[in-house]
Amino acid sequence: MTRTTRFVSLAAAAALALLGAGCATNGLTDAQELDLYRAHAGEPVKSFTFFGQLNGWAPLGDTALAVWTKPSEAYLLELPGRCVDLDTAPAITVTNQGSRVYAKFDDVLVLGGLHNSFRMPCRIDTIRPLDVKALRQAQKSLREAKAAERQAGAAAPTNH
User: Fold this and answer.
1) Vertex 36: Cα angle to 91 and 15 (nearest 5)
2) Distance between CA atoms of 111 and 93, rounded to whole angstroms?
3) How far apart are CA 142 and CA 129, in angstroms?
């Protein structure tokens, strides 16, 4: 089997930004964001089907990320350690074997970012399918709660 890598274009990354807009604006720390994704992830699986292009991706700190293979299909990928510049990279590469990405065998490679130099591959430790519908609902609820909180703060009378 030939080992191949696939690039996620900047356009796909922009599409993910639209999909996950709630993540960027909900005010959660990286750890809280990762906990939210973990709460909506199923049991670990050995691999997932990958037909050469990701629909999008989102860094969850520097030790995990979510990847979308379709608008309604995503996976939480956790790494055994820190992946340099993952949280600031404009694009990533995911290795695969015959149209499948395997835990403990395939890697995430960061492209671009702050230190645009050679980086070690970031091994995928675990793969967990995400309940995308429930995740989006949770993100929507967080956005609505934050908006209500802002409105309540703006409407509160100030005593001088």
Assistant:
1) 30
2) 7
3) 21
Q: Which among 59, 50, 61, 49 is positioned nearest to 20, based on CA atoms? A: 59
Question: HEC profile for the chain?
Answer: CCEEEEECCHHHHHHHHHHCHHHHHCCCCHHHHHHHHHHCECCCECEEECCCCCCEEEECCCCEEEEEEECCEEEEEECCCCCCCCCCCCEEEEEEECCEEECCCCEEEEECCCCCCCCCCEECCEEEEECHHHHHHHHHHHHHHHHHHHHHHHHCCCCC
Q: Is the pTM of this model over 0.85?
A: no
Give dist(CA 133, CA 125) in Å, integer. 24
Q: What's the pLDDT tens digit per position in 99-136?
A: 999 999 999 999 876 666 667 899 999 999 999 999 99
The amino acid at residue 3 is: R
**From CA 143, how far away is CA 148, in angstroms rounded?**
9
> Both tokens of residue 13?
């990354």
